[in-house]
Amino acid sequence: MFLTKEEERMLAGEKGPAAKKAMQLLVALGDVLGADRLVPISSAQIAGVSYGNIGDAGMELLEDWASSGARAKVKATLNPSGMDLDKWRDMGVDEGYHDRQLRIIKAFERMGVDITCTCTPYLVGNRPGKGDTIAWSESSAIGYANSVLGARTNREGGPSALAAAVTGRTPHYGLHIDANRRPTAVIDVKAALATTYDFSLLGYTVGRMLGSGIPLFTGIGHADSDRLKILSAALAASGGIAMFHVRGVTPEAGAGGKRKGDAGEKGLERLCIDQRELEASREMLSASGEPDLVCIGCPHCSPQELRDLSRLLKGKKVSRGKGLWVWTSRGVYDRAKREGSIGAIERAGGKVFADTCMVVCPLEKSGFSHMATNSCKAAHYVPSTAKLKSSVAELHTAVGKVMEAEGA
Ligand code: F3S
Fold first, then answer.
1. How much is the average pLDDT of 271-292?
2. Which of 228, 300, 376, 381 to mutate to test the pocket of ligand 1 (most atoms within 8 A of CB)?
3. Strand order in 245-246's β-sheet?
4. What residues are paired with 301 via a beta bridge?
5. Nearest ligand 1 atom, CA 360
6. What does pLDDT average to over the chain?
7. Which residues are within 8 A (CB) of 353 and not within 5 positions of it... i.e. 6 or more apart?
């Protein structure tokens, strides 16, 4: 792999032990993956933040990186951590877990990483533009960045994203190359997509049918940012899909659906998705029994989603013994608090957590046994990460399972 003089100096240790370690990791990765060189990045998003996921070994490794002088050269934010950094007690998190989670956050802080912990960094200031080269590692954020923002990232692991942040570079292969960003399958959508939940079902269905590749969706017409973010999450949960196109909507599938210089859709695999396929995904993701907890915010809620939820809860309250837990980023939380959405959700008996999510926090400590959600990604992972049963439903229906009329 070709290295510039500056990169060779980093590899030789002239820029310190941390830059050397980071460069060694990127060069080894690049060699294995067939990269011809490294390319500069403008943004990093680093996974491997939750203490529940990385444990003591991961925590100590990050502290070593920080002590050896690792410092982020570019804007870098974090994946959700294992707890709300303020309201951790409300989640059932104990002191030992809390202390270790804070050590992880502090290690990142010492490395100059912005300790915004979210899978939607693009809503809170880490928002690359079209054509920008980046190194992100949360699967839904990767899908959104490639597909909706038109930025370029491979599916980075936590260590490679950290190494990219420290060197300001990433190996040039995969989705950094034009030819690898073209659609590999056409998805004719015949199902009615009325809600964000429908987009989640669509993504989950296509992910499990394709497994990998780059789908080009046709027949969707319009999709706002919230729908595209939940679509990104679901595609990556059931399949390894890091990029998609929506004809006439996403930046590399411009109006009319033909990409500039694209050979077109001829010869590509075609799938037709109708209501029955979505229903099959719903059944797959829905355990029997009644939920006692509803989780909304996978990916993390946008300000608009919190506004919509607060309106939906008007005149209702969470039933005794049940829970409504909502997940978002710290930046969106602060904004929604000013706007009144957080207060409205809390008055109805819901809890809104920032910095973490239902999949990476110790949800098993919540005391609930069955989670309902409008996100297929959350329903896919929670039974294995937290041992709760899970099921999926459209937002109104899900929320209705744990709410009753005020005064009832
Ligand atoms: Fe985000 Fe957690 Fe879902 S990281 S995409 S809220 S599983």
1. 97
2. 300
3. 245-246, 215-218, 185-189, 269-273
4. 328
5. 2
6. 96
7. 84, 87, 90, 91, 325, 326, 327, 328, 361
Cα separations in angstroms, 60 against 84, 107, 160, 314? 21, 9, 17, 46
Integer angstrom CA distances of residue 334 from 106, 220, 329, 342: 21, 33, 9, 9
* Interval between CA 104 and ligand 1 midpoint (Å): 19
Tens digit of pLDDT for each residue in 57-82? 999 999 999 999 999 999 999 999 99
Nearest atom (ligand 1) to Cα of 378: 7
pLDDT of 283: 98
DSSP secondary structure letters along 141-163? HHHHIIIII--B-----HHHHHH
Q: CA-to-CA distance for 86 and 82, rounded, in angstroms?
A: 12
The answer, as to whether pTM is greater than 0.85, is yes
Residue-wise pLDDT for 102-112, tens only, equals 999 999 999 99
Provide the 10 A C-beta neighbour count for residue 266.
6
**Backbone φ/ψ region at 178: left (φ over 0), alpha (ψ -120 to 50), beta:** alpha
Contact between residue 273 and residue 206 where contact means Cβ atoms under 8 Å apart: yes
Query: What span, in angstroms and rounded, lies between the C-alpha atoms of 379 and 359?
Result: 9
Q: Summarize pLDDT for 22-46 with one digit per residue, the tens.
A: 999 999 999 999 999 999 999 999 9
Least confident of 16-25, 260-269, 371-380, 386-395: 260-269
Phi and psi at 316, nearest 5°, equal -125, 165
Instruction: Report the separation in Å between the CA atom of 112 and the middle of ligand 1, taken as the mean of its atom positions.
Output: 24
* Pair of tokens at residue 160: 């490679």
Kindly state the tokens that stand for 301: 């809620």
**By C-alpha distance, which of 371, 388, 391, 330 is closest to 83?**
330
- 120 CA distance to ligand 1 middle (Å): 9
pLDDT of residue 259: 52
